[in-house]
Amino acid sequence: MIGVVIATLGVFYSFVLPKNAKSVKIGYALNNESHYGVSAARMRDELKNSLDLKLFPNSILGSERVMIESLKLGTLDMAIVSTGALQNFVPQVGVFDMPFLFRDLNHARNVLDNDIGQQMLNQISHEGIVAMAWGEQGFRHLTNNKHPVRVFEDAHGLKIRTTQNAIHIRAFKSMGFSPAPMSWTEVPSAISQGVIDGQENSIAVMLSEKVFQYQKHLSMTDHFYAPALILVSEHFYKSLDENQKADLLKAAAAGAEQMRAFVDKMESDGLSKLKEEGMEVVEDVDKESFAAHARSDDPYYFKLFGEDLIKKIRATP
Ligand code: PAF
Asked: Pfam families attached here (predicted)?
């Protein structure tokens, strides 16, 4: 009997955090119901016997740029961010932000999950950051309050918020828009004050951030794929023992998987929800008319990222 009780307690305690479990802060820009939120919650569950992961959603700890700076300084332990902000710190990551580079989610995932993606994680893991895993947001689309956008000519005169990412800004200029780079936290007020006409983001972001409450027209442009990253502060990482490091890596892989599963769902039924919420959707966007002005085979990108790398990405199934 005593044996049974001890065994039961053993099972029970194996699911309870050790009393002195290290408390770990993870920040992200979106809410807890978003793809970032479910990913962070999954990591918290995975780590429940090892580390005490505390979730800080909704940019409470600052914009993505500020969070990356905090990781580097060691004042934040973990963050989930887009490449939108990260490209300022690791310019080479911008290769994945090129317009019309990836054909679909499978193509993007195949690239990120093979040696190209792994090498990029290694490249990011310098100057105070350790890149744990690739998550994602889906493909980015355009919204605005002025008029439906279907072809290149419709872009003229539209002031669109882009991320503060040199590749995104250049692509938006090439596609005929006036880009207005700013952090995501500034977007709702910039739109309501008429400082900008629109923004661009994935369906998952538009739903979780309720973009439909302040934007009327949605154009399914698929202009960029939007990778996301689970990052850890090097300062924090070095404070962990080998078991905790292994647990963290495992948890990040599970968190990334959860994020992709969420995005899959949003990509399959999110659009109908945005329509139900009243957005007017242009589905038959003439993507070629935009891609003709913002091509990923532009020699500018070859020079920046290397022609071989771009060709290798394009040739990946
Ligand atoms: O547009 C952005 O800056 C990003 O996609 C967001 C919404 C902060 C999520 O990473």
From this structure: DctP
